[in-house]
Automatic annotation (TrEMBL):
Protein name per its UniProtKB record: NAD-dependent epimerase/dehydratase domain-containing protein
InterPro entries found in the cross-reference section: Epimerase_deHydtase (IPR001509), NAD(P)-bd_dom_sf (IPR036291)
Superkingdom of the organism of origin: Bacteria
Start and end residues of each NAD-dependent epimerase/dehydratase domain: 21-155
Length: 246
């Protein structure tokens, strides 16, 4: 079994994401391995349901969403019919192993280090986040079931939470309350002059203004209860883990 979790920087996604996936599929085909591709919610585009099911239309309006959809279509092309595969879709995520690989990871890492932090997007709008240990449990459960392949699966979080509440919990756990600066279009564009990847986040800010929440109904019906670590526990555990590393 092969878990395809590798990613590429935003500013290289259009050129490298699909070729990377093709290499993974070629290897899986040659080695007769199943493939579990870990992906995000960009292909859904703007929310058209209160809770987004796996049947939500895929109508991406961003370059990254269109690239992600091209990746999915490649995965299910006829040339890979001999390979059993599935796509699991996560919302924004966090956890002791996330670090700066996620929007929230870099924020929590800075808070744990007692530094001024940046928060991407509107801090007042509640959004969905999944705790990585919970996501891993669900993905491994799906990977072990033959009847789960050939499909898309949502991996939902424990609910929604605002950035302000995240910061409150994180600072309480760290014992330090340095400033946390919200980054919108202007701030990201300015930082993008020095860090190209930051400029690439701008087109995805719609997800911080019109949040998309995943439905876990399919998972509950066919697999069972969804692991859902509460934010107070998950964020505190993440902060404490990084403080130990420091």
């Amino acid at each position: 079994m092969l878990f395809h979790c590798a990613n590429v920087p935003y500013n290289e996604m259009a050129q490298k994401l699909v070729p990377l996936g093709e290499s993974v599929m070629e290897a899986a085909k040659g080695l007769n391995l199943k493939v579990v591709a870990v992906d995000g919610i960009y292909p859904y585009g703007r929310r058209q349901m209160k809770e987004v099911t796996e049947e939500h239309p895929k109508q991406p309006h961003t370059r990254k969403g269109k690239t992600r959809l091209a990746f999915e279509r490649m995965l299910f092309e006829e040339r890979w019919d001999s390979v059993q595969k599935m796509i699991v879709r996560l919302p924004d995520y966090y956890g002791p192993t996330a670090n700066d690989a996620s929007y929230l990871g870099s924020t929590l890492a800075a808070i744990a280090a007692g530094k001024t932090a940046f928060f991407i997007g509107n801090m007042r709008v509640p959004r969905e986040y999944v705790y990585l240990p919970d996501a891993a449990k669900m993905i491994v459960e799906l990977a072990g079931r033959d009847d789960a392949y050939g499909e898309n699966w949502n991996i939902p979080g424990a609910g929604i939470i605002s950035g302000k509440e995240i910061v409150r919990i994180a600072q309480k756990a760290s014992g330090v309350a340095k400033p946390v600066i919200s980054l919108g279009r202007a701030g990201l564009s300015l930082l993008g002059l020095f860090q190209p990847v930051m400029k690439e986040i701008v087109e995805m800010l719609y997800l911080t203004e019109e949040p998309l929440t995943l439905s876990g109904e399919k998972y509950r019906k066919r697999i069972g209860p969804i692991p859902a670590t509460g934010f107070e526990q998950g964020i505190s555990e993440t902060i404490r883990a990084w403080m130990k590393v420091k």
